[in-house]
Amino acid sequence: MRRLDKISFVQGDGDRAQTLYQTAGRAEGEVCLARFRFRGGAFVSGSSACHWVTIHLDQPSRMCCRIGKYRSDHVAMPGTVVICPADIDVTAETDSSCDSLCLALSKAPFALLAAERAQPNADFSGVLLGRDDTVLAIARELADEAAVGSGGHGAAWRELSNDLFEHIFERYLLGQREDRRGVLTSESLARIHQYVGAHLAETIEIDVLADVVGTSRSHFPRLFRRSLGISPHQYIVRRRLQRAMQLIRKDRLPLAQVAAETGFVDQSHLTNWTRRVYGLSPAKAARSPSTRRNLQDRYLSDA
Q1: Which of 73, 230, 238, 282 could serve as 111's disulfide partner, Cβ 3.0–4.6 Å?
Q2: E strands, 48-184, where?
Q3: What distance in Å separates the CA atoms of residue 264 and residue 8, rounded to the nearest whole number?
Q4: Residue 295, SS3?
Q5: In angstroms, rounded to a whole number, what is the distance separating the alpha carbons of residues 278 and 62?
């Protein structure tokens, strides 16, 4: 599972845990999922560049967990959900055999939600351990998709993935660390969001974005990444894709014209980015129910 490749999943005898199934996770914006079986105990350690969710699927098991500075000794019940922030060292250990469902969540969709809501530096409120029936229900549906080999592809997967991103953002990230120094203010982020939306067809220079928020060119990229978790370039590309999907769906424009109106070099450039982020061709991505729902007119209201 490439998005958890820095996480070690080991069972009681020291061998790697059995992977019952997993998704390829080819598209940058999608959830990667894997189900692991641990026999005779489990030891999980490492860190991931993505946020990740793990769900205990077996009988009650006594767990010893450490996430960053937080430590918990508890009994994991069936359905216990743990949401781990990205880039934090994690260990979890049990002497019991167990099955776990793990989902790696890219930072980029959270960054777009934060920018849309002018909510800089949204972050988890802490280590999340307990029961969340919404996460559990979505994860089970994603697991069903993965188990039959359709995980990571198609409208149903994207619909569920977007539901998961939105739920976690609104329940666990929205409103966090608003007063932290060294990040963009809500007003600055709103100005960037408005400027980018109004100039997607043009070349958007980092110097200009720095001027929009009144900071230096050298400092701006670092400030932006600390605020949203992705680079300015990643953010601009995803805004271009959102606009492109809406133009394809609503106005049925030729791809070459869509590319020109959204700042891509040409049709091939647009297609390559659409496949990289959505895992689909532009036409299929625009028809996806989940993509349509996330491309409402709010994305164009600042243009």
Answers
A1: 230
A2: 51-56, 61-67, 70-76, 81-84, 90-94, 98-105, 128-130
A3: 39
A4: coil
A5: 39
Q: Are 276 and 238 in contact (CB under 8 A)?
A: no
Residues 149 and 263 in one domain: no
Structural domain including 239 reads 186-299
Give the Cα separation of 37 and 165 in Å (integer).
Answer: 26
Do 142 and 240 lie in one domain? The reply is no
The chain-wide mean pLDDT, for the chain, equals: 82
Q: How many domains does the chain have?
A: 2
Query: Would you call 65 helix, strand, or coil by DSSP?
Result: strand
- The Cα 110–Cα 83 span in angstroms is 14
Strand partners, 51: 105
Q: How far is 139 from 164, CA to CA, in rounded Å?
A: 8
Mean pLDDT of 69-78: 88
Per DSSP, the three-state class of 148 is coil
Which neighbouring-strand residues pair with 65?
72, 92
* Statement: residue 297 has pLDDT above 80: no
Measured distance CA(67)–CA(76) in Å, rounded: 15
The type of residue at 207 is D
**H/E run at residue 239:** helix 232-246
Residue 301: band (very low, low, confident or very high) from pLDDT cuts 50, 70, 90: very low
**Full-model pTM:** 0.71
Measured CA to CA, the distance from residue 59 to residue 260 in angstroms comes to 56
Asked if 273 contacts 259 with a C-beta cutoff of 8 angstroms, the reply is no
Domain-embedded: residue 99? yes
161 and 218 housed in the same domain: no
